[in-house]
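Now for today's protein:

——
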Amino acid sequence: MSSTNTPKTHFLVYAPDYTDADAGSRRQSDGATHVAHMVNMKESGILVDMGIMVTPKSLGKGAKTVGMYLVIEASTLEEAKEIVQKDPFWDANVVSAAALVRVAEFC
């Protein structure tokens, strides 16, 4: 990771879920661990904002989650990617590693 003297930047991470038949059950079974991890990141100041993404047709009751977005604070793009890869959803194959190339710096 980076030095504490390196300026931090906000990175927007688009993290779509895998789309296989078991993706939803993996999301549910690892949900509590993921939430605890997000709380720790928020408390440490790394996580600025986050939210789930749902299909437009499923808005409201019974919304179908298809991914999440994160706004994280990091010094470099590489550090931002490393932070995302520490999320329990990464190891549980909830977040699609192949699609996680959409990490962008913004002001």
